[in-house]
Amino acid sequence: MASQAASAAAKQGAKALNPAFDPRTVHFWAPVLKWGLVIAGISDFYRPVEDLSVNQNLALTATGLIWTRWCLIIKPKNYPLAAVNLFLGSVGAVQVSRIALYHRNLKKQQQESSILAQVQEGNKSA
Questions:
Q1: Which residue, 82, 41, 43, 78, is CA-closest to 65?
Q2: Region 5-33: what's the mean pLDDT?
Q3: What are the coiled-coil residue ranges (predicted)?
């Protein structure tokens, strides 16, 4: 009987130390609901790159990375919230890199087409 009381007290103490695993607290529901942002960001992988917002994805990246660090500094540490923020920052970083590669390739194509136009112009005059 005493051992059961001790184990129940230990479980209550563990919940008090880390409320991230108690569904009656915001520490539990904040990461659960934030996964919606991660899923929305992943669904944007299928959108055309020219429709993506650089500012929005930079904000997601910065927010994700800043809050990941914060979740690991606070007491008690909130590992579920840190995990979702890390994924959020990663999704934003992937999107920003997609946008950057798109713009780099677009600029390269414009340069190549202007060179090709100059070559064709030179062939016509000769």
A1: 82
A2: 69
A3: none
Residues 6+ apart with CB under 8 A from 64: 85, 86, 87, 88, 89, 90, 91, 92
Q: Which residue's structure tokens are 């520490």?
A: 27
Q: How far is CA 35 from CA 10, 28, 31, 69, 122, in A?
A: 30, 12, 6, 17, 57
The yes-or-no verdict on residue 52 having pLDDT over 80 is: yes
The residues, any chain, with a CB within 8 Å of residue 48's CB and separated by 6 or more, are none
Burial of 48 (0-12, 13-18, 19+ CB in 10 A): exposed
User: Nearest CA to 38 among 80, 78, 101, 98?
Assistant: 80
According to DSSP H, which parts of the chain are helical?
Answer: 2-17, 26-43, 54-73, 79-125
Residue 7 has pLDDT above 90, yes or no: no
- Residues counted in the chain: 126
Domain range annotation of the chain: 19-125
Given this model, what pLDDT does residue 97 score? 97
Phi/psi of residue 107, nearest 5 degrees? -65, -40
